[in-house]
Amino acid sequence: MFLTISTTGDPESPATDLGFLLHKHPERAQVFSTSHGAAHVFYPEAGVERCTAALLLEVDPVALVRRGRGKGRGGAPDSALAQYVNDRPYAASSLLAVALAKVFKTALHGVCGAMPERAAAPLPLRVEVPVLPARGGPRLVRALFGPLGWDTVEAEPLALDGRFPEWGDSRYVRLVLEGELRLADALNHLYVLLPVLDDAKHYWVAPDEVDKLLRAGDGWLAGHPERELITARYLSRRRGLAREATERLELVRLAEAEGLDVDEVDNAVDETEDTEDRPVPLAERRRAAILAVLTSAGAARVLDLGCGQGQLVQALLRDVRFTEVVGVDVSVRALTVAARRLRLDRMGERQAARVRLVQGSLAYTDKRLGGYDAAVLSEVIEHLDLSRLPALEYAVFGAAKPRTVVVTTPNVEYNVRWESLPAGHVRHGDHRFEWTREEFRSWAETVAGRYGYGVGFTPVGPDDPEVGPPTQMAVFTRTADLPMEKEGRA
Ligand code: SAH
User: Fold this and answer.
1) How far apart are the CA of 246 and the centre of ligand 1, in A?
2) How far is the CA of 269 from the centre of ligand 1 (A)?
């Protein structure tokens, strides 16, 4: 198992400074013992213009198997390792990541007493891992390293056997990363993402793994589009831990967005998020249900009305079928958080062309909302006073009139099932009303009739036989002007 890190330089800032930054002298070959075998550090080249450090891990497979067996507590043995013949010695990138963290510990933390300003500045870097196990293939490799500021992310699939090309590719790739990055950032990317790609963890995941992950992911993981896959795989799919990590990352992200302390945000989240999201990840189910409706309606240009902090906008952007996504909200604060979540300021041109965040009130007709395929009102109508609702109905169904409108709202009947909700309370301090299934149905049917839409209803979340689902969803489809359109085409 092998990786190299190279940099370039000139007489003023020689490439050999890499030795200082890594705390490993370029003229010496060194060996470190790790719990999985010997880690060698040496420099195949060390000149003013180019310098390369290599890390070679000589895994001791027998020790590895013994270690696995020796662990009494913490779960079942890893079956991939319960044998002496396996690919660990050659391609165990998760072991390499552990060795990297041990051997380059100080550099990983971005500390360099000798040249602090060099450690804090980006360097021209090139990282190569000649044989990298990559579950998910070159595409996932690019999805993982792509958003992290590397100019080049090359993942070349390796043939199963060079003599028999017809056998196809192995699950290994040759990884090359090039770009101007801080050395510490580059090392942290590798420390987290090599095991994620390997996806065969060799040691038991302990609770402090969450801390390790968050420390190594500082500054890049919270905003990474593949954050969920990364945490789930890094934490070996332990759902409890992955959820804890996701929640804490969310806090970090909100804190960054608002320039606050994480603790402060922790309290703020309690106030702003629906209590319903504690026991069941209902918000996620809602997004999935909405995405399914939009996809089956064939919608490409979508309005997210009352988009809040942009979770749905983000989910929509992940699917290329949505070519234009507009988030609208009355709250500038919510839109600011949404912009940070989407990293609007750092988005590539093509991606940025697909998305817009717009401030506006749905209680007023807005020309900017005309001409879209679909509009979503997810948990929004209950935030308007009942007396303002007809104005929203006209703005959406009468003026903007997209072909499909998806509306979700809490089902008040279900509230008795929320343990934490005192009887007679609404789910959120800002809800002006919450409806029964009957009330929602009759509202939706009236609106549909008035503006020329058909409407159907779908439960979201567990559909309780007595009180129904926690979220109710109505899908409106415009019918009134369909015949005219048909004529137009004929
Ligand atoms: N759609 C998101 C957020 C729901 S919270 C989700 O499903 O998670 C309700 C959102 O509606 C808030 O962000 C609030 O600012 C917004 N909102 C309330 N009244 C509004 C109005 N009149 N016009 C536009 N947005 C409004």
Assistant:
1) 23
2) 16
Q: In this structure, are residues 184 and 121 in contact, taking their beta carbons and an 8 Å threshold?
A: no
The structural domains of the chain, ordered by start, are: 2-204 (3.30.1610.20), 282-478 (3.40.50.150)
pLDDT, one tens digit per residue, over 138-183 is: 999 999 999 999 999 999 988 777 677 777 777 889 999 999 999 9
Task: Tell whether pTM > 0.70.
Answer: no
CA pair distance 24, 199, nearest whole angstrom: 29
Per DSSP, 435 falls in state B
Per the CB < 8 A criterion, the answer to whether 366 and 376 are in contact is no
Amino acid at 228: E
Long-range own/partner contacts, residues 164-173 (CB < 8 A, 24 or more apart): 171/133, 171/134, 171/135, 171/137, 172/91, 172/131, 172/132, 172/133, 172/134, 173/132, 173/134, 173/137, 173/138, 173/141
Task: Indicate the top mutation candidate among 376, 378, 383 to test ligand 1's pocket, ranked by most ligand atoms within 8 A of CB.
Answer: 383
**Residues lower than pLDDT 70 in the chain:** 60-92, 162, 200-207, 237-241, 244, 247, 251-280, 419-425, 429, 480-490
